[in-house]
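By convention, the token line describes the chain's fold. To illustrate:
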Amino acid sequence: MKKVGIIGAGAMGSGIAQVAATAGHSVVLFDTKAEALSLSKSKLASVMDRLVEKGRLKSEEAQEIQKRISYADHMEALSESGIIIEAIIENLDVKKGVFSSIESLVSKDCILASNTSSLSIASIASACERSERVLGIHFFNPAPLMPLVEIIPAIQTANEITDEARNIIDSWKKITVLAKDTPGFIVNRVARPFYGEAIRILEEGIADVATIDWAMKEIGGFRMGPFELTDYIGHDVNYVVTETVFKAFFYDPRYKPSFTQKRLVEAVRLGRKSGQGFYDYSPGAVNPKPNTDQALGTEIVNRITAMLINEAIDALFLNIASAKDIDLAMTKGVNYPKGLLAWADEKGLDMVLTQLEELYKNYCEDRYRPSPLLRKMVNEQKTFY
């Protein structure tokens, strides 16, 4: 089995290291900060103890998993890796610098991958002389628990590298989907309206935070409401992804960030981790109760899901991924109650188109433009499945 190198001992890098070690690989976890490595090692020990307590692992298995991971604060320790996955800060220049440095240390057959959630794989690959061995392998947080992994070849990536990398991740008992190297790939692109349109409804005064979250959970069937989820993710993280996708799509209004979330970031109200976001998490805080009017709730769900479905359809229209992989990505990557294309069939494509056309008529904003593929399929009376 290939030796796995992980760059970055934060939550994501540590999680990927755990997944690889559990699958039987020898792993080198590299970080320049000794304290990050120490924290990663102690957290893994705690995780292993809990899994043993719950009966999910035997004590011997937990010990073997921990023994397979070595911790290094010098990059040279990665030299014998057969595949390296970078999981550091979402900064293109920093990532390119790391890939340029690592290439000279490893063998010519070593696969180099980035765990970026939204940056250009082609641009990262351009930092390497052998760019054909570079691709994106995007895990979701927490990596040991979330089943989905997006595989993203750049235009430079050799087909055999894509196939080999996907086979490796499949062998780790993950569900892989293949995505085109475009901003946000599948999940972070298609999911934007879940947050953006919810905030827009809030800004218009149609419903408050608690009511929108209630509607999306109780009527829409989502595990978390959009405001609960952004508070959980952290507004600093969620807003940066939104802003990155917006800029990367040449300021397409469909992905426009909101001032509401920008102000939360500026006020350092980042959600759960700071104690306040859309909700107040301080001890003894009492948050508002939702308005459980069914008609209002249905209106909210229909508007947000129409936008999500339109985004999924447009991703298919632009060949970002197959219909199967788009639906798989949204159910396994962000726990949506249904695949959006299957949901479109269920709702009726004509109904979705009518909803979007009504929004476009009312607002005269390009964010509500229906996908050409949606119009085409309604005209030809086709469905996705």
In short: The chain has two domains: 4-178, 189-379. The mean pLDDT is 97. The first strand starts at residue 4 and ends at 7.
